[in-house]
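> tool_call: predict_assembly(chains=two)
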Amino acid sequence: MTTAEQVFFIITIGCYVLLTLIYLGWLLFGRSDKGRNIEKFLILGGLGSNIILIFLRVSATGRLPVKTIYELNLVTAALIVIAFLYMKRRYPGIALIGTICMPFAFIALGLGLSTANDMTPLTPAYKSSWLVVHVIFALIATACFVFATSSSAMYLLKKRHADNGSARFENLPSLNMLEELAFKLVLVGFLAETVMLLSGSIWAKLLWGSFWSWDPVESWSLACWIAYGLYIHLRVSLKWRGKRLAWICIGCLAVNLFSFWFIGLVTPKTYHSLDQVITPWDQQENSK
Amino acid sequence: MAFKDMATRNLTILLLFLLFLITLGVIYLPVYFNKDWVTSSFAAISAVTTIVILDCSLRRLKRIKLPKLVEFPLYENSIEVKEVDFFQSIEAKLRKKGFKILRGSDNLWCAHKNGFGSWGSVIFHIAIVICLMGFSLNFYFGFRGYTMLYEGVPTKYPEEIETEVKGRFFKFGEPYTLSLEQYQVEFEDTTPTRFYGTILFENGFNTSVEPVEVNKPAKHQGVFWRFAKWGYSTKLQITKGNEVIFNNWVNIMTNPGYSFVDRFVLEDKSEWEIELLPNCRRNQEGELYSHDPEPLNPWIKIVQLDKGKEKASQYIPLRQLAKVSEYKVGFSDYRFWQLVDVSSDPGEYVIYIGCLLMVIGLAWRLLFISKTIYFKEESEVSLHGEESTVLYWTSRAAYFNELFQEDVKRMLKDL
């Protein structure tokens, strides 16, 4: 990590932490007009700094930031904030969803920093046009799912108090709106996840000769896709609404984050690292 | 009908849940569990699920009708009409946004768009069926195998191909030979970044040359040849007394962390372990090591084994000889080997079409959400006797009523 990267990393994290505190304050004590300019400054400053951080990484490594968890999380954090910013611009009353979106962004950055962030060049397996499609859509999907889950969590918070007859958290958007926001972002995320899975399997065919090899990372991603498919069918076909659907949305994000952040830790024997040292052939040999 | 619908929907959820469990089950099943069986079950359940959903979607499509221009039970919003051309402005704006205006009797009218949005779901589920058909074609008419290629050494197709999976109706075509030519490995900061070369195909009458690289397989007569795995071969000469007992290439396995270690047994039943140190260096304790895969200073560590345990060992630099117990070992050369994945997939393009349709179907479903706004114009007289016109409206959108209502409010406010 270069000195410039360190500086912008601290600025980005700082902005996201301060934004979280502002949103938390608004959630607990009501929204103040005074803080709006600060919010605007922090959100644009944080996102700008995050984007500069990505460019610095690209210029330092001479390649796209797609190899290490640190690089992936830099892009994920930026996409989470972009998704939040876009939805906030479209529906101005939803700023408080940032109480959960923003912590996700800085946790992603922190988690990325805690992992190895070496600047090794891309191995031959990475040199494919499908790489950008596969990775970008995976990260877009995660960003959308994070927003959807934030919306669902806010739904649960508001619903809990509304059921008890409390008027607390009245400054949150209406329950129906929170639920629809979650569903809308799940649909966008599901489309992105589909593109990610399809581009990944086409790439796997070119690289390893098989569309599907039941690698743990592949399987967890497919499980995540099916879980969100279930969520969509429960809402569309069985007309599920309310708390149980919100909990399912949170559960689906857990599956998604597990397949993205933690699967490499619990299942090191994956050829998904693309260093071409462990391939499907090794897995087949081991399973015999 | 309603009961049948409900049963189909419950079945869909059940099947999807089953697919979810199978997917997670595959990861944690014991290694001896046959994954082909899992794949077949997964494909079969996916096919049933998709057909059930497709049936459900088609029945839902049948029920879709254009909005009726009767008075809506509840108009949730209203706006006072101040300007004379207000209605024309709304109509123009709605038409610009792609809405069709339906006029009913007297004061009722509505704007509607994307009535065909539900077709996206149908396209998506048909696409899954197409993909599964592509996989079936590969399963019955395709094959998959592998072979080792060494630079300049001819390999016979199909004799020297190790078949991994062969479809029931697959037949190998005319035999030919192939050889890997102009093979190159590029390194960047000692990391291998590119493997490439050409494959020369010959059948006695014709020759053709196809470039091959990781991610860019060579194709010849419907068969794909792709680089799957790489490693080093070392040329060894082993003598015992005056007798040469081995003079050949030894292929060394590539292990995680770029460690190149393998074992082999000679004709005299002696067991050996060989490790290639591509960029051999000496640490402060004087021990030899190599962390880089680039062959800048290749050495080998040769170990004679006795029942799996080390009996004698020696480090040998390139083009040198060394004594190991009663043997003399010479390390004269090294080269790369490539494990090549060979496959014929007649369903490949069917799968690609299916994938494309899946994305189109989902994007369609997402972009073309069915939306309707119901309007009712009414004249009202205030307490002061002033006459005014009020436009009552309510909006409906598939899945997103509340969000669409926000959009309409903003649109009317902007007018």
